Amino acid sequence: MIAIMARALFHHLSDRAGPMMPVAAGAYLARRGDPVTRLFLLLDGAVHMTRDRADGAPLILHHVGPGGVIAEASLHHRTYHCDLAVAATGRVRSIPVGTARAELAMPEAAALLAAHLATALQAARTRAELLALPNLRDRLEVWEALNGPLPGRGQWRTLAAEIGVTPEALYRALAQRRRLGHSPSGED
Fold this sequence. Notes:
6 strands
């Protein structure tokens, strides 16, 4: 449902977006505190909306995949509330914020945005429930129930950021799962 709503809004806005622009992993589309000047549409690749935790480790607030609208909640703010970090090389298109606001004020687009934001809110609440779990073992079980098998070894740092723990804590939890006979899904 979330993907369907995101795609509907994405396709509607695509007709109004500027030219395609390549983005490299490790780059930022915007940093927390930057002025909001554009609404981004992700054609391919991945973008993580992140904030740094008190210990300096990143916390992934939202993962945006192909066909996603990036930082739509910032449209009516002066500055971005998080970093828009390119997690996987891809391509984006963008719309000047004034143009996006005007378009999204039109009834058809406003309905698409409302549906999109409603499903995004549901996803955010589910994520908040996951992050509120005090036990890392429980977080891993809930993550698997929501997303399927755990990612492979090369993606464990990203998983740690998604579930709000340090990579070291995640590695220890995965080692404990192996010792208990539950091999982490996706392990090489």
